[in-house]
Task: inverse folding
């Protein structure tokens, strides 16, 4: 299991946060007294510092709150001063001929505008403070059952906002490493187009994730004609009543009557729907003492604010027209304003909920032994999957992704799907649960039967009980806020009882060995934890088969081995049918019953039993030439390319991830950095590429600062913005960085245009774009739309977009993701050629294949780099065996 640090992200329940927000909003919107507003902002600041958001990429911080206050108050004061010419103290007079703003600008108008802005900003700050702490899925429990389906969609959509924010940050980084800077409006498309495309793709992925999790698949009672007419009548009453009440004075009484009638009918319908079982009535964590204290203080605050608004003298109001008399301040009223920060001042031991066990949120409380009967099912001889002359073309594509496939897979099989990148493996897997063609469109021929059901006649949501599907990117399937709610979501969609959901949740957590992660936010999960969570969600409905698309591609070797042990255990004990696509075949071959090999695009796949798998792979494999391995390098005479000394770094609100790191990389050498998921490899590479804030030299900062140290790149120190530092285009010429996610770099209309974009930004035209694409095996797709390429092809295209500038240092983060052995071999050959020409190469990877060609291998653990011997002078036979294993 991955060892990502676990932090108490939410120390109040969702309902407690809502109560606190109601209290803060009621005060912020009801008062106009600047003394009270400033006091309320101070209370918000206390809450902000006491309950920081768990994610370093979201949420408001004290500095952001201060900037928001200054901006909103200044804008409101200036706007009100220009349009409101009221008061006894004019400051300046604009010509009366100027429309709207002509006339005297008074001190009263400016003060009144500033006070309104202060009131508005307190409400905005309250919302921005609580939004990172609200679990969208937990909010559904407060929605009436009749609106639960709509609430589910809205709750999932709420998770789209932080995902878009992270996508924006990734895209900005990807364009920065290509030397892109915003100088005018014409420079915006490279930033705007990727975020729009990514947002659209993310929306489609969310819709697909909801489909394969069975959303809408439960059989719900059909509404009667009378109920539909009643709903329509209530809407008509509300609309017509509002129009009559507010637009005419003659029929205002009738309008209010219609409004009340519509509201009464709507309330009745909501109460009637509440009588049905709620699809999200799953027991959550019990309320803590801090939750109860928050409810009490929020209630007192709201009642106190309502009472003050009705007292003579309007204690919370302040209107400076027509004079500037200072508002009065009553101490006991100020004490009421301070009540929202009372939970933060309580003993800290009250705020923490144990995250080490999921038992607090599961019912029943005692562990339930897993029944053995379900593991003793005999393996059926009949086929569970049947393809009959299946062909498929993606929309606007003349080349079939699948061509005339006819095969049968028996129930209880463990099938390994192999083949080069882009031959249709993912398309084949998506066809099993009906996503192809019902979700992706295009042209389809033939028939597919899964467990006797025709996939063309059954929606994927209905097939979710038969087929558990985990895509190549588990993050794309993430729909809810926490691990627990992610696993429960498919069961909620089927309308299971709370007791059944609790039992099966416990079972899925135990099977995947993630019981300690039940309450962890999904955005804090590492790659391995995401994979296990996605598999647990797929298993929660007890499907007859699992379909997995490269499930170990993002895992370190230890995590991948652990993942395979879980899969093989499920196959042996539960007799599940498992269909798994994977490039790293060696760790899977000992456990499979069949091999399904796709030799090339358009070629018929070969299905053979496990006894013939090795022979089939050997016959279809392309012989790899003898490797051009470089001998162990020595430091160049011209000096080191990278020097890192005493590098410390921690993300806000997280434990340190780099702790006093030292690294020296000689010019012209190749180093590889390995380590467990979440150990800090990507963080280190981003520092070298200048994408994270440069550390402050240790001589100028306290020894306890979480961000300190020195970094030099090609003799240039990376310094904070306040000091002299390299510009983005200068840094891009020195260091070329390729992130794990290639999609953040791709936005152009064609593959070759991606390379030309980098050339134009940096003014470097030493390489021919087409020849580089051909060198990476992308020549045939040079004129193709980048996002239509396979995962491996997009990875190589992102690499080409950086290599075209011939940077002195090449920094690669998991460059072999999605690559088949032949493509990885070609990548190694290319990197060796670059190294021979003088480039310095730094690679972070889990793939041992890439480490074979490195001059030095480092292991990153506990914030420190430890050198390990590099493998050199390897024979062609041994190197080819290594390619097969990795």
Result:
């Amino acid at each position: 299991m991955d060892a990502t640090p676990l932090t108490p992200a939410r120390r109040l329940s969702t309902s407690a946060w809502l109560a606190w927000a109601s209290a803060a909003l009621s005060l912020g919107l009801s008062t106009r007294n600047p003394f009270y507003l400033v006091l309320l902002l101070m209370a918000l600041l206390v809450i902000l510092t006491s309950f920081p958001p768990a994610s370093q990429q979201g949420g408001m911080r004290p500095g952001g709150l201060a900037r928001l206050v200054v901006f909103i108050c200044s804008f409101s004061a200036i706007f009100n001063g220009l349009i409101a010419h009221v008061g006894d103290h004019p400051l300046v007079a604009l010509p009366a001929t100027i429309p709207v703003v002509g006339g005297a600008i008074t001190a009263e108008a400016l003060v009144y505008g500033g006070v309104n802005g202060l009131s508005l900003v307190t409400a905005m700050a309250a919302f921005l403070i609580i939004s990172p702490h609200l679990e969208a899925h937990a909010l559904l429990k407060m929605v009436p059952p009749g609106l639960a389906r709509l609430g589910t969609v809205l709750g999932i959509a709420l998770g789209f906002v932080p995902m878009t924010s992270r996508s924006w940050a990734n895209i900005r980084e990807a364009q920065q490493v290509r030397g892109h800077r915003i100088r005018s409006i014409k420079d915006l498309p490279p930033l705007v187009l990727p975020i729009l495309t990514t947002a659209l793709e993310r929306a489609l992925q969310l819709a697909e994730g909801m489909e394969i999790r069975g959303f809408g698949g439960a059989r719900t009672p059909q509404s009667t004609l009378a109920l539909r007419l009643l709903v329509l009548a209530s809407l008509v009453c509300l609309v017509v009543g509002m129009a009559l009440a507010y637009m005419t004075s003659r029929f205002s009484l009738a309008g209010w009557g219609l409004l009340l009638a519509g509201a009464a009918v709507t309330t009745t319908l909501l109460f009637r729907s509440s009588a049905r079982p709620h699809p999200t009535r799953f027991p959550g964590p019990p309320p803590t003492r801090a939750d109860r204290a928050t409810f009490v203080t929020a209630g007192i605050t709201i009642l106190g604010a309502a009472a003050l608004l009705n007292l003579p003298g309007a204690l919370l109001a302040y209107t400076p027209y027509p004079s500037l008399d200072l508002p009065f301040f009553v101490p006991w009223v100020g004490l009421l304003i301070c009540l929202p920060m009372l939970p933060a001042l309580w003993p800290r031991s009250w705020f923490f909920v144990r995250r080490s066990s999921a038992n607090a949120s599961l019912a029943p409380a005692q562990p339930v032994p897993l029944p053995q009967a379900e593991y003793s099912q005999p393996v059926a001889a009949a086929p569970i999957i049947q393809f009959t002359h299946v062909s498929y073309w993606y929309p606007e594509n003349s080349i079939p992704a699948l061509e005339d496939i006819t095969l049968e897979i028996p129930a209880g099989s463990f099938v390994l799907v192999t083949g080069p990148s882009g031959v249709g493996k993912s398309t084949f897997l998506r066809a099993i649960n009906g996503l192809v063609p019902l979700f992706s469109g295009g042209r389809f021929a033939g028939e597919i039967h899964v467990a006797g059901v025709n996939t063309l006649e059954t929606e994927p949501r209905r097939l979710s009980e038969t087929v558990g599907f985990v895509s190549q990117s588990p993050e794309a399937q993430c729909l809810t806020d926490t691990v627990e709610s992610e696993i429960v979501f498919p069961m909620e969609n089927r309308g299971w009882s709370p007791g059944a959901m609790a039992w099966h949740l416990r079972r899925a957590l135990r099977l995947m060995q993630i019981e300690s992660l039940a309450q962890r936010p999904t955005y804090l999960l590492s790659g391995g934890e995401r994979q296990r969570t996605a598999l647990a969600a797929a298993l929660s409905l007890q499907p007859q088969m699992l379909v997995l698309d490269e499930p170990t591609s993002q895992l370190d070797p230890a995590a991948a081995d652990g993942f395979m042990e879980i899969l093989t255990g499920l196959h042996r004990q539960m007799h599940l049918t498992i269909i798994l696509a994977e490039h790293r075949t060696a760790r899977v071959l000992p456990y499979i019953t069949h091999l399904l090999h796709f030799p090339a695009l358009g070629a018929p796949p070969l299905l053979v039993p496990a006894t013939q798998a090795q022979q089939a792979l050997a016959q279809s494999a392309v012989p790899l030439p003898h490797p051009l391995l470089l001998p162990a390098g020595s430091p160049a005479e011209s000096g080191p390319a990278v020097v890192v000394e005493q590098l410390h770094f921690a993300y806000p609100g997280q434990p340190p991830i780099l702790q006093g790191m030292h690294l020296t990389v000689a010019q012209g050498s190749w180093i590889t950095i390995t380590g467990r998921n979440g150990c800090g490899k990507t963080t280190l590479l981003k520092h070298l590429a200048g994408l994270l804030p440069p550390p402050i030299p240790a001589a100028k900062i306290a020894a306890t600062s979480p961000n300190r140290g020195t970094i030099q790149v090609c003799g240039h120190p990376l310094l904070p913005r306040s000091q002299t530092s390299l510009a983005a285009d200068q840094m891009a010429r020195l260091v070329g960085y390729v992130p794990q996610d290639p999609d953040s770099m791709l936005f152009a209309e064609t593959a070759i245009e991606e390379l030309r974009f980098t050339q134009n930004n940096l003014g470097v035209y030493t390489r021919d774009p087409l020849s580089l694409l051909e060198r990476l095996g992308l020549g045939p797709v040079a004129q193709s739309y980048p996002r239509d390429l396979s995962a491996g092809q997009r990875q190589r295209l992102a690499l080409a977009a950086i290599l075209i500038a011939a940077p002195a240092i090449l920094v690669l983060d998991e460059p072999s993701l999605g690559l088949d052995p032949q493509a990885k071999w070609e990548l190694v050959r290319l990197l060796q050629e670059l190294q021979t020409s003088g480039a310095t190469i730094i690679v972070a990877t889990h793939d041992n294949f890439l480490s074979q060609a490195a001059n030095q291998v480092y292991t990153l653990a506990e914030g420190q780099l430890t050198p390990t011997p590099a493998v050199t002078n390897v024979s062609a036979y041994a190197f080819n065996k290594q390619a097969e294993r990795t």
